[in-house]
Design goal:
The protein has 219 residues and is of the alpha+beta class. It has eight helices and nine strands.
């Protein structure tokens, strides 16, 4: 397995202060739809998302893949399984099998840290206002993979910078706290894909504010 192995895992797991105010027009059946104005995401909400993300990735380090998969945002899961799996249970079981297979092939998840969240959006506009918070939480992940494309095979140590998209309804966050957060992996995601969940997000990905993604070899 090459250093791109983590990209494969995260894309299948589907877990600067910039608060975006968007007034970009959208087009609906009746013509131009004005994007409702948004409020900044409070810092306590950002911190809650960071803590929930750390709890999530701690489970992945321990190999608790079932818990990891079950924390994926339900609305996103429905989009991801469409045309591929008959139901959510089949989709989740597939992802658990994939993660276990990667470990069996030599992937070792060693450590992960959720960093301070700097970007967030109000989302899920309905009558009366936006109902959900969405926060992009950067993560630093240390792992090792067995590279069998070289002879003899060797263990490569890598560090990747990724992010989790943490999503929680405002009502659930008030009632359940940190447990209310669900997640979408930021690996390989695009603004177009994310707008399947929330159409009022900015079309310009720079305004959307995805954290950077990179992978480098460790000594």
């Amino acid at each position: 397995m090459t250093g791109g192995g983590w990209d494969v895992i995260e894309s299948n797991m589907k877990v600067l202060l910039l608060i975006v105010f968007s007034c970009l027009p959208l087009f609906g059946q009746g013509g131009i739809i004005q994007v409702p104005p948004k409020q900044p995401v409070p810092q306590e909400v950002m911190l809650s998302a960071q803590k929930a993300t750390q709890a999530l990735i701690n489970k992945s380090v321990r190999g608790d893949f079932r818990a990891l998969v079950e924390k994926e945002n339900p609305a996103w899961s429905k989009i991801a399984l469409r045309g591929r799996f008959p139901d959510i249970k089949s989709y989740q079981a597939h992802n658990v099998r994939l993660l276990k297979k990667m470990v069996a092939e030599g992937f070792i998840f060693q450590a992960a840290v959720a960093q301070q969240a700097m970007v967030g959006h109000e989302v899920n506009y309905k009558s009366g206002g936006y109902k959900d918070w969405m926060v992009f939480v950067p993560t630093v992940n240390d792992y090792a993979v067995m590279d069998r494309e070289v002879q003899p095979a060797r263990l490569r140590k890598l560090r990747s910078r990724r992010f989790q998209i943490a999503i929680a309804s405002k009502a659930a966050l008030g009632a359940k706290g940190q447990e209310a957060w669900t997640f979408v992996s930021g690996a390989g995601i695009t603004g177009i894909q994310l707008r399947q969940l929330y159409p009022f997000l900015p079309k310009n990905e720079k305004l959307l504010g995805f954290p950077p993604i990179e992978t480098a070899e460790r000594k």
